[in-house]
TrEMBL record:
<feature type="domain" description="Peptidase C14 caspase">
    <location>
        <begin position="3"/>
        <end position="261"/>
    </location>
</feature>
<dbReference type="GO" id="GO:0005737">
    <property type="term" value="C:cytoplasm"/>
</dbReference>
<dbReference type="InterPro" id="IPR050452">
    <property type="entry name" value="Metacaspase"/>
</dbReference>
<dbReference type="InterPro" id="IPR029030">
    <property type="entry name" value="Caspase-like_dom_sf"/>
</dbReference>
<dbReference type="GO" id="GO:0006508">
    <property type="term" value="P:proteolysis"/>
</dbReference>
<dbReference type="Pfam" id="PF00656">
    <property type="entry name" value="Peptidase_C14"/>
</dbReference>
<feature type="region of interest" description="Disordered">
    <location>
        <begin position="244"/>
        <end position="268"/>
    </location>
</feature>
<protein>
    <submittedName>
        <fullName>Caspase domain-containing protein</fullName>
    </submittedName>
</protein>
<dbReference type="InterPro" id="IPR011600">
    <property type="entry name" value="Pept_C14_caspase"/>
</dbReference>
<dbReference type="GO" id="GO:0004197">
    <property type="term" value="F:cysteine-type endopeptidase activity"/>
</dbReference>
Length: 605
């Protein structure tokens, strides 16, 4: 059985990272047993050569081979042409962008559609059931703009195409509608950089001419961390997601298909989140702990073949794994460790050595570790003053005597970053049935937007509508996590949210007196440098009972005011935080609306 890969990098438009991403992936896969790695970049990443390369890959594949297809580059989707058959337009909008893609294209559309990729994948899985697809590109039609040194892997807008006519030219009259959905192939695993309505980014380090895909870099790092550890694609994706969202909270990698399988195998992973145990003197090492997001303070039940033998508390997290002291305990062959308690997530911050101790004492921030990239950075000037910045630009400055305020601002930024990662599928939702719509308001008219990936400008007015389909009363609170990490309870009339009955709607942006839809304007915080667009997140907290969220409120990263929030309430919002992992979960649904705010009124940044 051979491990084979076809790696495609289409470096078009403003992108500078796909070629390097392909080289990085090739080296990583070779470290993990791939002996047949085929690279298509530059002119070899044209439409015809990509398809021909995929065809050759299928021909060369034998039963039992592990085969991976990887693409890095732009992604977009088509707007259906008038009269196009509905099922084609609905199921098959996405396409990848080869290096010979040009617009306008007439009848010669050079993109490779989801239909074509799905047909190729279906043919590949006839040869082997061990097929993996990895896509580092966008799947959104919305306009996006550069965020600091980040560039979206997406065309500047959607493409108008008679997709049915294009597919008939490709396949003849037998358009394979039954094979248009890549998620329908139950023999394959598919990892994507973001959702179908989200944006994936590449990051260019300051001063470097070449960028790298956030998703690709996280994939390679997580893959290397998995060496020697039996792990599923689902667990690997969780680690990839954490790494990506440390850099870009609005990008959410996903895994689809046979995610329960072990990496590059067809057998499912039955370890249920357990880790192997290695004795190193008086210490016990858990290799692969980074895949589960293990942190100092986490506790594990160490279980031998006969049952639990000891409790291990983690006090070190290093590239090779997490470890803790456990002297004098026998660890027979087959001993595993299962996490029973997890501390709250902590965000890495790069700080001068003089601040290490103070940042280590924070609840949501910690000093950056070896081989980590930190989303927050503190530098010290010659006069002893400090500058706190994130990847988008500076956040605050203070003199040598402002350390206390600086550490407080670091904690605020980290706390808001943790809260930004909350999603409705966190495992503790109440199951209340709600429908959500949001978007821009222009003279009372609605312009709906997707839940993630939109671009707004200062002065734009927004609305949010939540419709209750639960069969009972619900309460809704709206929290805004601003561009400077402030957390505002927008529905501040009641700390436990606004109540609305079954069948009713809660509309944010509705004038309660006139019942007109006026919207609420978005603004740029005073004192924050308008050097770049920044991400903003609105969280809708929907509960079946009143639930006071006011303790989450905090000021932005400026000034010396103290946060009113407490770690305890935020802990309840996060999967695997400071609680007994076997305990009850609060009944709370969270819907996240994510957009990018430009500091320039009504124009691109």
């Amino acid at each position: 059985m051979t491990r084979r890969a076809l790696l495609v990098g289409a470096q078009t438009g403003r992108l500078t990272g796909p070629n390097g991403d392909v080289r990085t992936m090739a080296a990583a896969l070779k470290r993990h047993g791939f002996t047949d790695v085929r690279v298509h970049i530059d002119e070899d990443a044209s439409r015809d050569r990509i398809i021909a390369g995929y065809e050759r890959l299928i021909e060369d594949t034998a039963a039992g081979d592990a085969v991976l297809f990887y693409y890095a580059g732009h992604g977009s989707y088509v707007i259906p042409a008038v009269g196009e058959r509905a099922e084609v337009a609905t199921n098959s909008r996405q396409f990848i962008v080869p290096t010979d893609y040009v617009e306008p294209f007439g009848d010669d559309f050079r993109g490779i559609t989801a239909v074509e990729l799905s047909v190729l994948l279906e043919r590949l899985t006839r040869r082997t059931e061990n097929a993996i697809v990895v896509l580092d590109c966008c799947h959104s039609a919305l306009m996006s703009r550069t965020l600091g040194t980040q560039v979206p892997r997406q065309l500047d807008g959607p493409t108008v195409l008679d997709l049915e006519a294009h597919l008939r030219r490709r396949f003849g009259d037998d358009v394979p509608i039954d094979r248009t959905d890549p998620l329908g192939n139950q023999k394959a695993v598919r990892l994507v950089a973001c959702g179908t309505r989200e944006v994936a980014y590449e990051q260019r380090p300051w001063g470097s001419p070449e960028a790298y895909g956030l998703f690709t870099a996280a994939f390679v790092r997580a893959l290397d961390e998995s060496a020697g550890v039996p792990v599923s694609w689902s667990s690997l994706t969780e680690r990839i997601r954490r790494l990506v969202q440390e850099q870009e909270p609005h990008q959410r990698p996903e895994v689809e298909g046979r995610s329960e399988r072990r990496l590059f195998e067809t057998e499912p992973d039955r370890s249920a989140g357990s880790l192997p145990v290695v004795r190193v003197g008086d210490r016990v090492l858990l290799p692969g702990a980074a895949l589960l997001g293990v942190q100092r303070g986490d506790r594990f039940a160490v279980k031998g073949p006969g049952g639990t033998t000891a409790v291990l508390e983690i006090d070190r997290c290093e590239p090779e794994g997490a470890s803790g002291l456990l002297p004098g305990v026998d660890l027979p062959a087959g001993t595993q460790a299962v996490r029973t308690y997890a501390v709250a997530p902590r965000i890495a911050v790069q700080v001068p050595a003089a601040l290490d101790e103070a940042v280590e004492a924070c609840t949501f921030a910690r000093p950056v570790g070896a081989f980590e990239e930190a989303p927050l950075l503190v530098t010290q000037s010659d006069d002893g003053g400090f500058l706190l910045r994130d990847r988008f630009g500076p956040l605050m400055r203070c003199g040598p005597d402002g350390r206390r305020d600086l550490v407080e601002c670091i904690e605020r930024a980290a706390r808001a970053t943790v809260l930004r990662k909350v999603r409705e599928e966190s495992g503790w939702a109440s199951g209340a049935q709600v429908e959500v719509e949001w978007g821009l308001v222009d003279e009372g008219a609605r312009d709906p937007l997707p839940l993630s990936g939109a671009q707004l400008s200062v002065g734009d007015s927004i609305f949010i509508e939540v419709r209750n389909r639960s069969g009972g009363d619900l309460w809704v609170s709206v929290l805004d996590i601003g561009v400077s990490y402030g957390i505002t309870h927008v529905t501040n009339r009641a700390g436990s949210g606004d109540r609305f009955a079954d069948g009713d709607s809660y509309v944010f942006g509705l004038d309660r007196r006139t019942r007109e839809l006026t919207g609420r304007k978005v603004s740029w915080p005073a004192g924050l440098d308008p050097v770049s667009s920044r991400p903003e997140t609105v969280l809708l907290l929907v509960t079946t009972d009143p639930y006071d969220v006011t303790s989450l409120v905090q000021p932005p990263v400026r000034g010396a005011a103290r946060s009113r929030g407490r770690a305890g309430l935020l802990s309840h919002f996060l999967r695997g935080t400071s609680r007994d992992l076997t305990g009850a979960d609060p009944e709370l649904d969270v819907i996240s609306l994510e957009f990018t705010l430009s500091p320039l009124p009504g124009s691109a940044s």
